[in-house]
Specification:
Helix 5 runs antiparallel to helix 8 and helix 8 (about 150-160) crosses helix 9. The longest helix has 22 residues, at about 25-45. The protein has a 5-stranded mixed sheet. A hairpin with a 3-residue loop joins strand 1 and strand 2. It has 2 domains: about 1-50; about 100-245, 60s Ribosomal Protein L30, Chain: A, CATH 3.30.1330. Residues about 70-95 and about 250-255 have low confidence and may be disordered. It has helices spanning about 1-20, 25-45, 50-65, 70-75, 100-110, 110-115, 135-140, 150-160, 185-205, 230-235, 250-255, and strands at about 120-125, 130-135, 165-175, 210-215, 235-245. The chain has about 260 residues and is an alpha+beta fold.
Length: about 260
């Protein structure tokens, strides 16, 4: 009996395992049904709208957009009430026939913060007015691209000269330190590029270009010795010289 029982038990084991594995899909099926049920419950809940809250919201929007509809167009205190002060209006100096003395006075006023801080200087002779703009105001070292302070100063100069009829010389100067970069092969190239950018900024702001002369002198016209750093800094500059236009008719009449 013992042997037969063992044989019987060994024979029944595969049948029990097969019956158990055949019903395992019910567990997965039950999980799937549970997830689907949860999904439908969420969809149903989200589809329900609180009619009272929706009505309140729509009425509030209607009142807001229907109130004072003409204020925006009539310049009242509506959406565009502060738009007039968004961009400050430029201060324009009246143009016209000016003397060199008037140009000097207006230049001193327009550039007072730069002159008082020592960032630039003004020289006046009997027949010309010269504005001396150092490198530190206009450019970075060994560069010819204008800096932000340069725009402010040059735009102020242009507002004074706009509409006038003077001969304007824009001269670029460097120190004696040789330069050779990918962009500027020598001090001649650098001085011309700096004078060109300064002069073109004035022309873009309305200064007449017919009487413009743009020149580069490199290190050939220093105003002080180049044996100190301070001296070199003074020599790196752009000078704008304003003078009366010579009357060629008077010269021709005098020579006859």
């Amino acid at each position: 009996m013992t042997g037969r029982n063992k044989k019987y038990s060994r024979g029944m084991a595969p049948q029990d395992e097969h019956a158990t594995s055949k019903d395992r899909y019910l567990v997965t099926y039950a999980d799937l049904i549970t997830l689907l049920l949860g999904l439908f419950v969420i969809l149903y809940a989200s589809s329900q709208v609180d009619k009272d809250k929706f009505k309140e919201f729509s009425e509030a929007l209607s009142q807001y957009f229907k109130s004072k509809p003409a204020q925006v167009l009539e310049g009242g205190d509506g959406v565009l009430s502060g738009s007039k002060q968004g961009v400050p209006e430029p201060i324009l100096i009246p143009s016209g026939n000016k003397t060199l003395s008037q140009v000097n006075q207006e230049t001193q006023t327009a550039l007072s913060k730069f002159i008082q801080s020592g960032m630039m200087s003004v020289r006046q002779s009997s027949g010309a007015l010269t504005l001396v703009l150092p490198e530190k105001l206009l450019f970075q070292s060994a560069k010819a691209e204008l800096q932000n302070d340069a725009y402010t100063a040059l735009d102020s100069i242009a507002s004074v000269l706009k509409g006038t009829n003077f001969a304007i010389f824009v001269d670029g100067h460097t120190d004696s330190q040789p330069i050779r970069t990918f962009q500027y092969e020598s001090n001649w190239h650098l001085s011309v590029a700096r004078a060109m950018n300064v002069g073109y900024r004035l022309i873009r702001n309305g200064v007449q270009e017919q009487n413009f002369v743009i020149r580069g002198f490199g290190a050939q016209k220093p105003i002080t010795a180049n044996n100190t750093d301070q001296g070199k800094a003074q020599n790196r500059r752009v000078e704008i010289t304003i003078s009366e236009i010579a009357n060629t008719d008077d010269k021709n009449n005098g020579s006859k």
